[in-house]
Amino acid sequence: MTVKELIAKFEYAANNPNALLDGYLKEGKKVIGCFPVYTPKEIVHASGMIPMGTWGGNTSIERAKEYFPAFCCSIIQAIMEYGLKGSFKGLSGAIIPCHCDTLITLTQNWKSGVKEIPMIGFAFPQNRKIQAGKDYLVSEYATVKTKLEELCGHEITDESIQASIAVYNEHRKVMNEFVKLVPDYLNTITPRVRNYVLKSAHFMKVEEHTALVKELIAGLKAMPKEDFKGKKIITSGIILDDKGLLEVFEANNMAIVADDVAQETRQFRTLIPEGGSALERMAQWWADVEGCSLAYDPAKLRGRMVAEDAKKLGADGVVYALMKFCDPEEYDYPIFKKDMEEAEIPHLFIEIEQGTTSIEQIRTRIQTFAEILA
Predict the structure, then answer these.
(1) CA distance 34 to 41
(2) Global pTM?
């Protein structure tokens, strides 16, 4: 396939998760919903079921208001709204990782409001680098495994999880190769296209996505490197996949050379290490994660990591997209801002929300930022 044809496949997958879900169900597959931010997809994959991410969406919040106050993360409200409206019909279960207070409350609200889809909740320890934290996470993963076994009807062996870890580590390596290649092809890999490639990974079968990204990488490498005349930025936040917002970047001749976004590069930039049982390896992965607002980090490396990437890639500026009412991201921003100022990197703070009807204020802020960078 040509690069253009490959991009069209990623775009379709990113924009049509329900169609993909219907396809999996017609194949006779069971599908497990994987809620933000990090779910053990390797265990789901090892069970023979298909892990499928859900990150909310631009929907009007109506019924979810019965369960959450207005000052609640819009991603979680949207997920609950979709659940209550039956948009997840066909899922055999849903895994909810308790990274924050809102996700914790989602577990109980889900059990109350969406009874037809079994909920599997578990908690990531924040004392994640000490042995006790790793042991605790192994026990949490073991509970997830037991509940998934009830849904799939057979044992999920250590060997099968080890094999799935290899599959997902291969995907991580390919995705890391892709994002490192993007800065050389910014005319082709626009902000929207880049997001299609990364977002589609949450919905497609991992083996199929890996194969397509490999093909895209080969297609790009066969092209001459492109001379991009606009401004290069790095994005940071939980999610930044609004089509209208990405179009604003493009309209202002801005390209995304790298990201520090939970829905995007944070999903794959850290490999699951070698050594130990499958669940021990996965627990060590959580200890190895750095630069994420949802992973306790007394050293607060996130801003410095982004600044280092900005210097290395020659980025003109950084955009910090705060998901409204996201406490972990709000706590990170003052330190992040200080790190950008110390590194003398221009940065823009914007507040985003799923389901918003207008982005005009953000559009104006991005236009102004683009003029500052010019």
Answers:
(1) 8
(2) 0.95
Region 341-347: mean pLDDT is 97
Are the beta carbons of 286 and 273 closer than 8 angstroms? no
Per residue in 77-86, is it b (16+ CB within 10 Å) or e — as a string?
Answer: bbbbbbbbee
Dist CA 57 CA 370 (whole Å): 27
Helices (H) and strands (E) in the chain, counts: 14, 8
Under 8 Å CB-to-CB from 361, ≥6 apart: which residues? none
- 155 vs 47, 78, 146, 206, 293, CA distance in Å? 8, 33, 8, 22, 34
Q: What is the DSSP letter of 150?
A: H
Looking at residue 100, the DSSP 8-state letter turns out to be S
Is 231 in a helix, a strand, or coil? Answer: strand
313 and 258 Cβ atoms separated by less than 8 Å: yes
Structure confidence by residue, pLDDT tens digits, 139-197:
999 999 999 999 999 999 999 999 999 999 999 999 999 999 999 999 999 999 999 99
Q: What are phi and psi of 272, to 5 degrees?
A: -75, 125
Spatial contact of 11 and 196, defined as CB atoms under 8 Å apart:
yes
Taking the C-alpha atoms of residue 25 and residue 44, their distance in angstroms, rounded to an integer, is: 16
Structure tokens of 75?
A: 């991603």
Helix axes 278-288, 158-181, angle to 10 degrees: 30
Distances (CA, A) of 291 to 232, 301, 349: 21, 5, 18
Query: Which tokens belong to 84?
Result: 């209550």
Residues in contact with 172: Cβ distance below 8 Å, sequence separation at least 6, in sequence order = 268, 269, 270, 271, 272
